[in-house]
Amino acid sequence: MSDEARWEQVDAYVAEKLLGPDEVLTAALADCAAAGMPAIQVPAAQGKLLNLLVRVHGARRVLEIGTLGGYSTIWLARGLPAGGRLDTLEIDPRWAEVARRNLDRAGLAGVAEVHLGPAVDTLATLTGPYDLVFIDADKPGNPAYLREALRLTRPGAVVVLDNVVRGGRVVDADSTEPSVVGTRAAYDLIAAEPRLDATALQTVGAKGYDGFVVALVS
Ligand code: SAH
Ligand code: DHB
Ligand code: MG
User: 214 C-alpha vs ligand 3 centroid, how far in Å?
Assistant: First the structure.
C-alpha cells in the first residue's frame, strides 16, 4: 500500500473512532461540492482540532479569514460557549451564500456572521478583540492577515494558520509559487515578532501533506 493510501485509511479510522458521523457537516460538504467549490476544506480531524482549541482556550470571540462553504466555520463556532460570536471573511459571493446556508442548517446563523468582501477591507472595519484567529484564505495575504490578527488580539489569544507545509514545498527558498512565497513570509514575520510564540504541526491524511501553525499572542 502507498503511503498516501495509508494516510487516508488512518484519517478514516480516526474520524470513525473519535469524530463519529455528523449529518450537518456531511450535508455542508455535499452542498459545497454541489456548488462547484474546490474540496480544500480542512480535513475533519483538523476541524475537530480547531473545535478543541476554541474549547480548551474558552474563546468567546473567534475570527476566521477564508470561509469557503463554512465547513471549518461550523467546527469553530460549535466550540463557542453560549453568547460566543464568530466573524468569518469571504471574498467570493457564491461561497459566502453557501456558507450562510450551511451555518443556518447547523443552527449557527445567530452565532457566526459571514462578511463578504476582500479580507483586508473587512479587517479594517473590525475592532475585536478576538480570542482565537484562524487564517485560511489566499496565502499571499498571510503576512497582512497576521499583522491584522496582532492588532485585533490581546495577550493570551491564539492564532492558527493553515497550509504551512504545502506538500513540503515550504522549504523551497527559491520557489516562485505564490502560496509558498506568502507562507514563507508568514514564517519570517512570526519568527521576528516578539508578540508571537509558535510552532508548526505537519499533517498527513486524505488531503495530502500539509500543516498548521499554532501561535500564542503575548
Ligand atoms: N476555511 C475553509 C477553507 C477556506 S479556502 C474550510 O476549511 O472549510 C480559502 C477561502 O479563502 C476561499 O473560499 C477563497 O475564496 C477565500 N479567499 C481568497 N482570497 C480572499 C480574500 N482576499 N479575502 C477573503 N477571502 C478570500
Ligand atoms: C488549498 C488548500 C487549502 O486548505 C487552502 O486554504 C487553500 C488552497 C489547496 O490545496 O490548493
Ligand atoms: Mg486551508
Answer: 14
Test site for ligand 1: of 64, 91, 134, most ligand atoms within 8 A of the Cβ: 91
Residues 75-118: tens digit of each pLDDT: 999 999 999 999 999 999 999 999 999 999 999 999 999 999 99
Residue 114 cell numbers, joined: 459571514
Residues whose CB is less than 8 angstroms from the CB of residue 155 and which lie 6 or more positions away in sequence, other chains included? 195, 217, 218
Ligand 2 probe mutation, 49, 68, 163, 213, most atoms within 8 A of CB: 163
* Cis amide linkage into residue 155, ω under 30° from 0: no
1 CA distance to ligand 1 middle (Å): 34
Report pLDDT for 38.
97
Q: How far apart are CA 198 and CA 60, in angstroms?
A: 22
Q: Which ligand is nearest to the CA of 177?
A: 2
Confidence of residue 146 (pLDDT cuts 50, 70, 90): very high
What span, in angstroms and rounded, lies between the C-alpha atoms of 1 and 209?
17
Spell out the domain ranges in the chain.
3-217
Domain 3-217 homologous superfamily, CATH: Vaccinia Virus protein VP39 (3.40.50.150)
Quote the pTM value: 0.98
Residue spans of alpha helices (H) in 140-217 = 142-151, 178-192
